[in-house]
From TrEMBL:
NCBIfam families: gly_Cac_T_rel, PRK06939.1. It comes from the Bacteria. This is Pyridoxal phosphate-dependent acyltransferase, putative. One of its GO terms (molecular function) is pyridoxal phosphate binding. InterPro entries: Aminotrans_II_pyridoxalP_BS, Aminotransferase_I/II_large, AON_synthase_class-II, AONS_Archaea/Firmicutes, PyrdxlP-dep_Trfase, PyrdxlP-dep_Trfase_major, PyrdxlP-dep_Trfase_small. Homodimer. Keywords: Acyltransferase, Pyridoxal phosphate, Transferase.
Amino acid sequence: MTSLTSRIDAELQRLRSAGLYISPRVLEAPQRPITRVLGREVVNLASNNYLGFADHPFLKERARQFLETWGAGVGAVRTIAGTLSIHEDFETQLAEFKGTGSALVLHSGFTTNQGVLGSLLQEGDLVVSDELNHASIIDGLRLAKATKKVFKHKDMQDLERVLLENPTDGLKLIVTDGVFSMDGDIAPLDKIVEIARRYGAVTYVDDAHGSGVLGEAGRGTVHHFGFEHADDVIQIGTLSKAWGVVGGYAAGTRDLRDLLINKARPFLFSTGHPPAVVGALSAAVELIQREPHIMETLWDNTRYFKAELSRLGFDTFGSETPITPVIFGETGAAFEASRLLLERGVFAVGIGFPTVPRGSARIRNIVTAAHTRDMLDRALAAYEAVGRELGVVAG
């Protein structure tokens, strides 16, 4: 008989043997462009804090106000007694920002995918998913009873092939990330929506890395392509990356919101967000509209960093967004590069198989609006030294 101890020990050993065992780095200072890791001040290129909001004074002050006025927590699930007026006020603010009829906030982008996909899809439906979609989409689809098919990454011919080969009288849903988290490329949403409409399908966009980054004032990938008012495009995303706090959202028609309130299990069985979280999120959406230069700085920094990496001879895999992979090939090389960068004062994490395909191990860098040119130059100097030491760029 297998004991609990032997099961845990065996699984941990399997992870260590496969090189998949994780020991998270611990930040010893707030989430800022310069933070502290292992007692060392480092340039932080590892976070999703695109707009520098995670430690922004405006968000912290609003969180403090909401904490003092509304308390530390809400004490119930949203559908019983855990919906405060501030929750619905923020959801109205978010819907207006996104240009949709409504919005509903859940605890995370991960649970939002589970809740929305589980609520929408039934037996007899067809869902077609990009092969590089996020793990939360994959897990959300595992819980759904619909027929599940995958199309090659951003391959519109393959998308059409899958739709043609799988006719159904049920709901047809095409699911894609807006911005792909490992490569930093943007989904061809204009082409996807056109194909979806031709086949009577609905387009579902996970905009975790596009919200706050693309579109006017960071309204996202859907806005970037001009589909924000389309009833056949569903937007979901996180409030924990560019917005600097925590949570997920689904934005679409009023009926979609009502359906999720009644059927989305992560919403039905989770306590509502604490008031301080709601206050900080409200401040984030307000701030990006009031100070558009923040996004301009994000993109200025992104263009500069990419151009300099390319000049040094690094392969950034055609990234189109602040997500900037630097390819090192094999997993061991990427992990060693990450270690050497940390020794030189740069915190950037190596990523290898199975998160990315074999031979494309990389360090994923995320440039933010809070980085200064001096910080980026320090990181670039470290990259140049490490690249030469590992033979990735010419010496």
